[in-house]
Write a structure and sequence with these properties.
Largest interface: A-B, 102 and 98 residues
CATH architecture of the largest domain in chain B: Orthogonal Bundle
Shape of chain A: globular
Oligomer: heterodimer
Number of domains of chain A: 2
Structural class of chain A: mainly alpha
Order of helices and strands of chain B: HHEEHHHHHHHHHH
Number of helices of chain A: 12
Number of helices of chain B: 12
CATH topology of the largest domain in chain A: MetI-like fold
Number of strands of chain A: 0
CATH topology of the largest domain in chain B: MetI-like fold
Order of helices and strands of chain A: HHHHHHHHHHHH
Radius of gyration of chain A: 24 Å
Shape of chain B: globular
CATH class of the largest domain in chain B: Mainly Alpha
Helix content of chain A: over 70%
Distance between the termini of chain B: 32 Å
CATH superfamily of the largest domain in chain A: MetI-like
Strand content of chain B: under 5%
CATH architecture of the largest domain in chain A: Orthogonal Bundle
Structural class of chain B: mainly alpha
Number of domains of chain B: 2
Radius of gyration of chain B: 22 Å
Chain lengths: ~300, ~260
């Protein structure tokens, strides 16, 4: 979901093929991306602006966007989506900082821990959402454990964690998926920055807290920020987890967009696409912010 | 940091990562597991035999659909992505940043938006509800992802070997098949594996473009979760997650400890 950070850092400037040769190498890939991705977005925009295939190209207008943006359901969905993406990202970022600091040396040395860290990155979201149902549902494993421990009598006593108001199941699923990603980004920075500054801090008699607050935190902050923004962008636009674990009302924005898109009422379709474009814009904004953060950090000399 | 704290953190990480797989494995081998039993009341292989039986044909069919779509998507992504990755990894040129942005966007923007836009056009072209259409929409993010991996591969690649081979009289084709491909094979495999995995995990864009006709594994899994047959849903989930572990083991073996951040 992100661009692995600039692998070309040391691309040696060598006498390459001429411009024509480069174009030949790049053209097929760029053409496919342009036609399918760019075309898909452009066609979506045209449809959201009111182009109906049956009626032919009529007036283009912002009407669908206006109707979507003023719909109270849209506002509720937007708030819910911001809440879920924001909460899961903040929790994941906090856990990641802790894990990265505690595990910095362990991840380097232990292949098993390193391997375990990669697992959540590759496992599909849907599988974890299914596992979340099995664990967190009223008759799930945690509820059974609570009964066994004598904390509750029936499944009805168990707090609602799936299809609930606060999206607990959704947030937990995302945290599980996101922590390794943010932790990895922090560990990369810690690995490159070394211990020199911390040693200086120690010779100046800085306490562990002071060393964390004034040395480590400023060093890792850009990485935490950039990784969190990327993860926020991802969760903001993701569909499967809230679709399976969320309530039927209000829905997150991607679920709402799809519901409108697949509505039998064909007039709801352009509004679904318009919602999709709003999602794309929010996501792109978050990614641009992440890039700006990275650039600013590089200027300040923080390695990222 | 004391050793015991570090060791405890290690165990917490292992437990947290392993936790979701426990219930999936238990459910897939359970025959009867009523509330509030903490353990299945009866064990059995019903779910697994169901998957392999004719009654469960839909499961095998879904695995087939998923494998075909993901394999073809990965093959195309690597074939088209290889030259692009080479250009980006070996040479600096004007407009490289722009190319990088163009390739980053499809990885970030949710496929939902693209699939909704493409749908109408694909209906016109007769690509809706076909393998080709689903592969097309998967390519929008699998191809850029493969290019980024191959970009990394080629920035660690020394083309001097090619020059040497050519000076010894190797043909252009021989240089590619006998020098370049063997040298980049591990990286190339990782690119293919993760392109496969991205396509394999995809749900919504498959549903929109495939229109329920291309029932890949995730599409079936959603239906199963709706039907409430938990053992079968658990077993299918485990089948669904298997390629991720294969990819991980492979890359851990061949790429060493190079991180795989960026796969989602």
């Amino acid at each position: 979901m992100d661009s692995p950070s600039r692998p070309d850092g040391d691309a040696r400037t060598r006498r390459g093929p001429d411009a024509g040769g480069l174009v030949l190498l790049l053209l097929p890939a760029l053409a496919v991306v342009w036609v399918l991705f760019g075309g898909g977005l452009a066609l979506g925009l045209v449809q959201a602006l009111g182009y109906l295939p049956v009626a032919g190209l009529g007036e283009l207008s912002w009407g669908h966007f206006a109707r979507v943006l003023t719909d109270p359901d849209f506002i509720r969905s937007l708030l819910l989506t911001f809440y879920i993406a924001g909460t899961s990202t903040s929790i994941a970022a906090g856990i990641s900082i802790l894990t990265a600091l505690l595990l910095a040396s362990l991840v380097e040395r232990s292949r098993v821990i390193h391997f375990m860290f990669q697992v959540p990155l590759t496992v599909p979201h849907l599988v974890i959402a299914v596992a979340a149902v099995f664990m967190l549902a009223p008759a799930g494993l945690f509820s059974r454990a609570a009964v066994a421990l004598g904390w509750i009598q029936t499944s009805a006593d168990f707090p609602l964690l799936i299809n609930d108001t606060w999206g607990v199941g959704i947030i937990l699923t995302y945290v599980w998926k996101e922590v390794p990603f943010i932790t990895m980004m922090i560990l990369a920075v810690l690995r490159q920055s070394g211990n020199a500054l911390l040693d200086v801090g120690r010779t100046l008699k800085a306490s562990p807290w002071q060393r964390f607050r004034y040395i480590t935190l400023p060093t890792i902050f850009p990485a935490v920020g950039a990784a969190s923004l990327i993860v926020f962008a991802y969760t903001f636009g993701a569909f499967e987890v809230p679709f399976l674990l969320g309530r039927t009302y209000p829905m997150t924005l991607p679920v709402w967009a799809y519901k409108n898109y697949s509505d039998i009422d064909l007039l709801a379709r352009p509004e679904g696409i318009a919602t999709g474009i709003v999602i794309a814009l929010v996501v792109m904004l978050a990614v641009v912010l992440a890039q700006m953060l990275t650039k600013a950090a590089r200027k300040r000399g923080v390695i990222l | 940091m004391t050793r015991s704290v570090r060791r405890m953190t290690g165990w917490i990480v292992m437990t947290a990562v392993g936790l979701p797989f426990g219930p999936l494995i238990l459910w897939s081998f359970s025959e009867r597991w009523f509330f509030p039993g903490l353990w299945p009341q009866a064990w059995g292989l019903r779910a697994w035999t169901y998957i392999a039986s004719t009654a469960g044909m839909q499961v095998m069919a879904a695995i087939g659909h998923s494998v075909v779509v993901a394999a073809v998507t990965a093959a195309i992504a690597v074939a088209i992505g290889l030259p692009a990755g080479r250009a980006l990894g070996l040479y600096t040129f004007k407009g490289k940043d722009l190319v990088s942005v163009i390739l980053t966007l499809p990885i970030i923007v949710p496929p939902l938006c693209v699939a909704m836009g493409l749908h109408l056009w694909f209906i016109r072209l007769g690509l809706a509800e076909t393998y080709a259409g689903v592969i097309g929409v998967h390519l929008t993010f699998c191809l850029p992802y493969a290019i980024f991996v191959l970009w990394g591969v080629f920035s660690n690649y020394n083309p001097e070997f090619e020059a040497q081979a050519r000076s010894l009289g190797a043909s252009r084709l021989a240089v590619i098949t006998r020098v370049m491909l063997p040298m980049i094979l591990p990286g190339l495999s990782v690119a293919a594996l993760f392109a496969f995995l991205l396509s394999w995990s995809q749900y919504l864009s498959t549903l929109i473009i495939g229109g329920g006709r291309v029932t890949t594994l995730p599409v079936l899994l959603f239906a199963l979760m709706g039907s409430g047959d938990r053992p079968v849903a658990a077993a299918v989930s485990l089948v669904f997650v298997a390629p991720a572990f294969v990819a991980l083991l492979f890359s851990a073996r061949y790429v060493g400890t190079r991180s795989l951040t960026g796969v989602h």
